[in-house]
Amino acid sequence: MVGRRRKMTFQGLKDRLKQKIYSWSIRHISQGGKEVFIKAILQAIPTYTMFYFLLPKSFCMEMKNIIGPFWFKKSHGKRGMYWCDWKSLCALKEEGGIGFRNLSFFTIA
Is 1 within a domain? Predict the structure, then answer.
């Protein structure tokens, strides 16, 4: 069972996110490709776990801090420019965002 050490229990999710990002960050993909990769793969990894457990808000922030730099960086080892904050990227496309999931709200739903 999960118990009190929830962050340690869900450490495997963060490791899987980092592993997927590392395997794809050495390839040259466009911003559209990054968008599809984040929506279809990275944000889908913790979804099954969120069905059964309420993830801690700090853990969701750590996952956001793993996904965010992947979106903004240029290529492997090069940092990119942060043009806007993550909150505006999580807005709906009709509202001017990209439509990424806010994981802390998604785990509550």
Answer: no
Number of domains into which the chain is organized: 1
Which tokens in the block code for residue 44?
Answer: 């889908």
Does residue 75 belong to any structural domain of this protein?
yes
Please, are residues 60 and 104 in contact by the beta-carbon 8 Å criterion? yes
pLDDT of residue 5: 67
The answer on pLDDT for 60 being more than 80 is yes
Q: What is the pTM of this model?
A: 0.75
CA distances, 87 to each of 16, 48, 52, 61, 102 (Å): 24, 23, 25, 12, 8
DSSP H or E stretch at residue 19: helix 11-25
Assess if residue 15 is contained within a domain.
yes
Residue 70 CB: number of other CB atoms within 10 A? 19
